[in-house]
Amino acid sequence: MRLFTVFKLVLVLVVLASCNSTPKKAGSFELLPSPSSVQISGISSVSPTEIDEFVQQAKADFISGNSLPGSSDISLTLEVTFDLAPEGYILEISKEHIDVFAATEEGLWYGLITLGQLVQDALDQEAALPLISIKDEPALNYRAVHLDVKHHLEKKEYYYELMDELAEQKINGIILEIEDKLAFDKQPKVGSSDAWSIAEWKELSEYAMARNIRISPLVQGLGHASFILKHEDYKDLRDDPASDWAFNPLDERTYEVQFDLYTDALAAFPHAQYLHVGGDEVHTTGRGSGKSPLELQLIWLNRVSEYAESKGLTPIFWDDMPLKNAGVYGSIFNRNLSAAQVDSIWTANEPNLNTYVDMFPKNCVYMRWNYSMPETIGNNRAMRWFTDHGFQVMGATAGQTRWNLMPLEESNTANIRDFALLSIDNKADGLLLTLWDDDSPHFELYARGIAIFAEYTWAGNKRNSDQLHAAYRQRAFGSELASEEYAFINDLEGPVEFWKNALLDNNDRNRIRRLENPLQDAVLALPEANNPGAWTEKNAEKLAKVEEYQLAVDSVLHQISASKKAALRNTYRLEVYEQVAKVTQFSNKSLLLLSEWDLAKTDEEREAAKEKLLNLEEEWKIQLADLEKVYGKTRVLDKPDDYILDQDHHVHLANQAIKFADWQFYVEDLFLQKIKEGNSLEMKGDIQNN
Q: What class of enzyme is it (predicted)?
């Protein structure tokens, strides 16, 4: 028997033969998340097909609350006296029998999920199940993902399928940022016309809970309150009458409104253990009250924490503003600071926090969010300040922040890993994975980040990033795609990052709607007929990137095509990646055509390039229609026609227009307009915005 403590369970099964058996095919098995410990010793004779039928029935019975089945091949044993963690289990596959042991129903559920993954890999490869012994438990108790629905909703069935997928990765919590996507009974003007009813959200909550996923709501305040304060009926509650961002924390009606929203949200999510109250990224004045911003925030935080406690819930609060107001926040986001430098900053400024320490509510979880460098000495120091003063603290990492089209930085692997390991080392209760929709990539492309989070929060540091990404591909698409030849996602990141501003002149896609004349002041200047070659020379660095990324994306598209043919499941996710790749290729092609026009040697060459440029508009219409067809399979693309956009304080692309294409591809529309108008002016001189 051989002990594997690092579970990259690639089990090459040897060929066995006897007078009564046929050879067994080799199999490759990848569990995700990795179990705590594994022992393997050979091949089982138990039929994967029969076990698959049993597992599916057992899961269905678990979900419905029925008695779990038994069979001659498998036993499920629930015994509270077992020395196992609350979600822990033991899984034994012997020559002719399978046993799953647990001390809790949740542990038995996760044992079934692990068995189901082994069976799926065996069936995928027509291989035998291994002789295996697993003892498993999570490194962190609370492993929650954040769903941000404020800018758009997916189609209803998609959320139900998502609950099933999260359960398979042993995720046990969701923080759902609801904003105006709940049809509030007590404050009906806040809910948008596409909002789900309390009953509809409650049904999803029940569905998730049956799979050991507890949904808790996030209802924004003190800041991030534009979804409320943009409405005429609530303008008197603004801290700044000209801004829809923040409530006045000294107005009693502020709490009447917020408590009404909480009440309806808790009715929609009846299994909540937390009430996330937000509280980040906001300075308030109290309308000249003379109170400090920190004091005002703590006045508000105490009121909402008292409400949560009265409902038997634990409030969660983003912790950034007290740290900013105290002057220690900068130390968190500077990895170049030494321990002595961090100590110096905190020694000088910590009294600003300590002055108000008695005002910090004790029942609150202070959520230390850090999406880029959780490993810094300053971040550790901030978390320690809360624990040293007897407060609960929990981390928040990110699978998606402000990236366009798709998550970058290997789905934020390093950040997720580092914050998970920090949380495990500090014996934290859990970790949250935020999945922001601010710039609205397709949610299918968040899946790899969720899998990475599931791995590190359950198992700790058992796989490196390459091993983990391969395991994700096998679980998501089938064992053949675990091969490196199908590892295209990271190769698409550079082209996507470049795409964001490729058609702009030193401007940012998110910010150009704030310009009076974005066509003239932001969109890339066109080459001029009377100065051939100058445009290409000026944009030489950008064009070098274009040529590099055009080749890279061609390769990615080839890999995606091969992946779609080889995948056994989740081919839709591959279709979404394919559309993202094609979007980046459109920009690359456009820039190369401009250079072709600019470098033309003859009138005939220039006219031919010009015709290709003018054809881009029709090509883009066809490409966009294809993309919307693919995206529209799972998501509601556009906001309701009557939707009221807010003041967009943080330049969220998804907050800048009603139609999906108008917020996601505004730049492409401007660029094509400039090409068309440039034609009439022979592509020279300034072009004024219509």
A: hydrolase
Mean pLDDT, rounded, for 257-266: 98
Characterise 499 by phi-psi region: left (phi > 0), alpha (psi -120 to 50), beta (else): alpha
Tokens of 39: 């022992």
| 589 and 624 fall within a common domain | yes
Burial-class residue 618 by CB neighbours within 10 Å (0-12, 13-18, 19+).
exposed
Q: Which of 74, 106, 136 is the last residue of a domain?
A: 136
- The answer to whether position 98 is within a domain reads yes
What is the set of active-site residues? 281
pLDDT digits 0-9 by tens, 224-257: 999 999 999 999 999 999 999 999 999 999 999 9
Look at residues 522, 494, 511 and name the one whose alpha carbon lies nearest to residue 653.
Answer: 511
Residues 217 and 273: their CA atoms lie apart, in Å, by 9
Number of domains present in the structure of the chain:
3
Q: Which of 33, 5, 7, 42 shows the shortest CA–CA distance to 117?
A: 33
Q: How far apart are CA 237 and CA 240, in angstroms?
A: 9
Separation CA 531–CA 533 (nearest Å): 7
Element (H, E) at 648: none
**680: pLDDT confidence band, cut at 50, 70 and 90?**
low
pLDDT for 9:
42
**Is residue 223 a contact partner of residue 254, using CB atoms and an 8 Å limit?**
no
pLDDT at 688 over 60: no
SS3 for 222? coil
> At residue 109, does pLDDT exceed 80?
yes
Structure tokens at 578: 């394919």
357-370 residues labelled b (16+ CB within 10 A) or e (exposed): eeebbeebbbbbbb
Give which of 681, 643, 688 is closest to 662, Cα–Cα: 643
Q: Is residue 572 part of a domain?
A: yes
Rounded CA-CA distance 44/659 in Å is 55
How do residues 265-309 score in pLDDT, each as one tens digit?
Answer: 999 999 999 999 999 999 999 998 999 999 999 999 999 999 999
Tokens 């941000």, residue located: 148
- Do 123 and 158 lie in a common domain? no
Same domain? For 49 and 77 the reply is: yes
Any domain includes 536: yes
Do both 180 and 96 map to the same domain? no
Q: Which of 119, 136, 153 is the last residue of a domain?
A: 136
3-state secondary structure of 28: coil
The dihedrals phi and psi of 331, each to the nearest 5 degrees, come to -70, -20
Sheet order of strands, 89-93 included: 2-4, 37-43, 130-136, 89-93, 98-102, 74-78
Cβ(634)–Cβ(573) below 8 Å: no
pTM: 0.94
Residue 445 has what pLDDT? Answer: 98
Rounded mean pLDDT, 493-508: 97
Helix (H, G, I), strand (E, B) or coil at 686: coil
Residues 155 and 235 grouped into a single domain: yes
| CATH code (residue 129) | 3.30.379.10
Maximal C-alpha separation, the chain: 91
668 shares a domain with 524: yes
Question: pLDDT band for position 70 (50/70/90)?
Answer: confident
As a whole-number percent, the residues of the chain with pLDDT over 70 amount to: 95
- Tokens coding 238: 């603004």
Q: Which residues pair with 275 in a beta bridge?
A: 315
Query: Residue 555, Cβ neighbours under 10 Å: how many?
Result: 14
Range of the domain at 254: 143-290+372-462
The answer to the question of residue 281 being in a domain is: yes
